Amino acid sequence: MTDGPRPLNLRELAGTVRAPAKPSGPRRVDAPLLAPAVLEDLARWLASAQERDVPAPLRRPRLVVLAGDHGVAAAGVSRLAPGDTARAVRDLLAGRGPTAALAAEVGVGVAVHALGVDWDAGDSPAADADDPDPDPDPDPGRVPGVPEPVTRHAVRAGSGDVRHEDAMTAEQTEAALRTGAAIADTEVDEGADLLVLGDLGVGATTVAAALVAACLRKNAVDVVGRGSGVDDDGWMRKTAAVRDATRRARKLATRPVALLQAVGSPDVAAAVGFLLRASARRTPVLLDGAVSLAAALVASRGVPGAEGWWRVGARTAEPAQALAAERLKLVPLLDLGAGRGGGTGALAAVPLLRAAQVLAAADAASAPRAAAPAAVGPGGAGGTGEVQPEEPGPREPEEHEPTREEPAPGPGTAPAG
Question: Which is nearest to 157 in space by CA: 172, 170, 145, 171?
């Protein structure tokens, strides 16, 4: 990595990040002394993000998928070919595939941003199927069959092979970070009350593993998983690639922006900016697999405390995800084994958040009401303007009525009372 201008400070993107305030809503009325359960913890997290004592229903959750190709995929680290990223983006835009199906089922809108997709690598008859009448003289900045907003924030096509070269230039890294922050701003401005972070990209878990290994000073064998489902030979190639990338990046562990430039990618850098800006905008985020956890780890190193606004949707089989979550002290809400990527693990946890909100609202509705203050007279606090009758006290004896004095207690007599 060559020396250059001073990199962007991540605090410029995050501004002032404050930890979520602790709500003071009622605990369970049926068992108030029990320790908080997972759903109660979730409800309190939502309530604190919304600055309420009892969380409100989620009205506009949004899945934001950041897509990109990765040069390290040329080393055979994935079961998928580089062109599969472009095809996966087109499928998602057309409502096909597991991510689109699950998002529709749980009522979550989807936004896709291609930060570093190599569209030429995906050229095939299937890739052009959504554009039956291609323009013979197309705009070089436009991708046939792909809406312009999807490619509006593109930083570059793919990324460098992190085994032996930087993933991006310093300018591209800063552009990707700022783009992620701008995407978060747009979603929050349009009313998103929960953000779900997803990813698409061949070789993405290799980049994620390298980032986690560099940040936590782990060996490649500690962080590398099966990713897309590679066999033993593929796992060894992937481990060797992460080892080479980590050797280049180890000295950058305390410089998150420089680390992203060296062994990150446009989509992962954008995820870092996205997470920090969402925290600054006080909007909760559900994280997905190894890629979003790697981005969260890098973001928290630049702006400690931002992780209070994030939760992990589901545990996967990727060691890098588990190590990053452990360092961030984030416990996954579900344990689904091997993940499917694309945000599906986080989407699966959205109904859990909704259940937590419903139960919290039911507990609040069942909580005992505070007793009304007693009346204090005409116009007084709690009064109605009417004179309240006094309670009868001991009757004073009339002058002609004899009284009876009690004998004084003797040595063997206990006082009355």
Answer: 172
